[in-house]
Amino acid sequence: MEKKKTISVIVENHPGVLARIAGLFSSRNFNIESLAVGETEDPSTSRMTIVATGDELVLEQIIKQLNKLIDTLKVIDMSKEDYVERELALIKINIENKNLTDLMHIINIFKGKVLDTGSDSLIVEITGNDERINSFIHLTQTFGIKEMVRTGVVALTRSKKQKE
Amino acid sequence: MRGAKILLESLKKEGVDTIFGYPGGVLLPLFDEIYNEKQIKFFLVRHEQGAAHMADGYARSTGKVGVCLATSGPGATNLVTGIATAYMDSIPIVALTGQVATSHIGNDAFQEADITGITRPIVKHNYLVREAKEIPQIVKNAFYIASTGRPGPVLIDLPKNVLAGNIDEFIYPDSPDLRGYKPKYEPNKLQIKKAVELIEKAKKPVVYAGGGVIASSASEELVKFVEKIEAPVTTTLLGIGAVPYNHPLYLGMLGMHGTKYANYTIQDSDLIIAIGARFDDRVTGDVKTFAPHADIIHIDIDPTSISKIIKVDIPIVGDAKNVLKELLQEVKQIRHPEWIEKVMQWKKQYPLTFSCAKEGLKPQMIIEKISELAGEDAIIATEVGQNQMWTAQFYKFSKPRKFLSSGGLGTMGYGFPAAIGAQVANPDKLVIDIAGDGSIQMNIQELATAVKYNLPVKVAILNNGWLGMVRQWQELFFGKRYSHVDISGSVDFVKLAEAYGAKGFRVTKEDEVEKVLKEAFNIKKPVLIDFHICEEANVWPMVPAGGSLHKMLEGSELA
Ligand SMILES: Cc1ncc(C[n+]2csc(CCOP(=O)(O)OP(=O)(O)O)c2C)c(N)n1
Fold first, then answer.
1. CATH number of the B363-536 domain
2. What pLDDT is recorded for position A162?
């Protein structure tokens, strides 16, 4: 059965590391839904958040293969943790001959921000988990989405609630 | 000190005594240093692919890291097949390549190739060195990575200005600097306990051992283990030599061209203990029908090998030798008289046999003769195709590290340079490449290398005039439509040997086989023997690709 998994990978901040990870996914025929890369609190490392799909064996392989790379310091299977995840999307929505009140209403419900307004379209920023962004896209599709970009999911495990 | 000198000093710190390589423009500063080098022996090859396979043969026959060197661009790309061959079979080599100056990288400079990019999927790791001062640590890391955990090739790309650059002082680090790389050698105790329970419960256990047993030098422990639990044992192509051929519990190789009795044993077993093997498709055939009643314990140092193809019941991550030692300590002595009797019955009933309808020498007989005359310390390389499978089936190996063959990649042209590399590492041993007439032509230029350095490698060409293995498939599965597999009359191998300054023999009659082999083994220079074998001899038995292990084709049944 196909499943989706969010995986965090802490890697050495070396040239070529991104190519190694991306190459791993293509050469091993793994499906990657999104990949977000950025610096961490330690400048010698970067953190990649990968959303991958596959059956149980494949997802297990993905985690092992990521671990096997020499430049990998740590792989965290977020699905085994309590974690928060967010993604940001910028969406350019058509407003020509459209009911702006309806649109603003949807944007408000999703706590979106209007970043830019033009005569025929406006750019909205939405953050949330994957599901939330998808439903926003779904609701605004009737207006016409002219362009869209998504950052890919980033995730962190939650802080401990009580001192142990 | 110059970068080139730092490199050589670093290699010496790693115990390197041999480099196989070929020069070129960006390597001039390095070759200028090699010119003065006394401790490291340099072997000039005739094609960089040869250098990579020689480093591989050196490594397989000794367990040490093999080193090869090529210039930037075409030199580096010529290494690729050799690197991929070593990667697929987990062989420790370090490949050094020249690169254009760092200021030129990315400009499509003369003889520039992005070799770290090209080799990324076929190395355990690779490095592009940016400054001369990085050389010692990178060399340290590279040798550590290549030789530990699951071994494999590591490439170091060395730009011209790095080799020519200067640093004040040479300090070699004591340890690698690799915070993300920690191979796990010691097995988890709980997993050992679970495995022991399963082993003691099993009625029909079988051990399936691969190249990992040889890599971890665990042959002795393996034999003790199968004796203690009284389990029959079969090996993969790369596991050949892990158990002596004449051990009563040994079933030979399993899989596509394995013995019937090995395959039947696997299919009927209720427990498979896989050690340092990876359930390759040439071993399992159709995964859905593979060993339908068996639980699986899988011991491997590489976690990615486990549950990659088949979901296993008890994974044990660790070094084969350590795991076997633990198991030997924990498991009680067990006997399975009924199971062993059943397996021995198969062994008696379905021996490997051979015949050939047409005239010509029987290749299997030649291999048996070589085996008889060469002695148990001889090192045997093979090419790829029928020659390789016949050798795996009929040669009697008593010890590990005596059989060098490209299993995972199946590289024609591997055997001859690998034999040369093994001869360099084992100057006093008899080293023989058992070849096909197709494969030998893929790296025949290395005959010049063998002659030049007086390396007395023997090549036994099983000359059938065909790309035999492909012809066999066309015969069996494509209605004898022999499309582009006829290579008869390629060359006069005897004259070819002589042209290179080697010795050549041609053998067409059965009663000459022994005489010529004996004579050849006594000649202290490279010898090529052209055996004219029965043209359409096939490798039997055979599981067709994707078929089930218990459904083996047999030549006599088809005729
Ligand atoms: C480099 C390379 N090219 C192609 C193949 C595909 N292939 C596998 S076996 C074979 C024929 C080998 O012929 P030969 O060396 O004469 O050996 P034989 O099978 O006749 O013993 C071929 C072409 C290969 N394994 N390697």
1. 3.40.50.970
2. 72
Q: Judge if the beta carbon of residue B505 lies within 6 A of ligand 1.
A: no
Note whether B408 and B88 are within 8 A (CB). yes
Integer Cα distance of B476 and A134 in angstroms = 54
- Structural domain boundaries of chain B? 3-164, 189-349, 363-536
How far is ligand 1, taken at its centre, from the CA of residue B384, in Å?
5
**Do the Cβ atoms of B180 and A23 come within 8 Å?**
no
pLDDT tens sequence across B23-50: 999 999 999 999 999 999 999 999 999 9
Give B404-441 pLDDT, tens digit per residue. 999 999 999 999 999 999 999 999 999 999 999 999 99
Assess A4–B contact: CB distance below 8 Å, yes or no. Answer: no
User: Which amino acid is it at B338?
Assistant: E
Whether pLDDT at A127 is above 60: yes
A84-156 belongs to which CATH class? alpha beta
Q: Looking at the domain B3-164, which fold is it? A: Rossmann fold (3.40.50)
Q: Which residue in A has a C-alpha nearest to residue B178's C-alpha? A: A70
- Give me the sheet containing B205-209, strands edge to edge: B250-253, B233-235, B205-209, B271-275, B295-300, B314-317
Q: Which atom of ligand 1 is nearest to the CA of B410?
A: 25
Report the CATH fold assignment for A3-80: Alpha-Beta Plaits (3.30.70)
Q: Report CA-CA distances (Å) from B451 to B22, B45, B334, B458.
A: 17, 11, 54, 11
pLDDT in tens, B336-350: 999 999 999 999 999
DSSP helix/strand/coil, B94:
strand
Decide: pTM greater than 0.95.
yes
Q: Which CATH class is domain B189-349?
A: alpha beta
For the Cβ of B382 lying below 6 angstroms from any atom of ligand 1, the answer is no
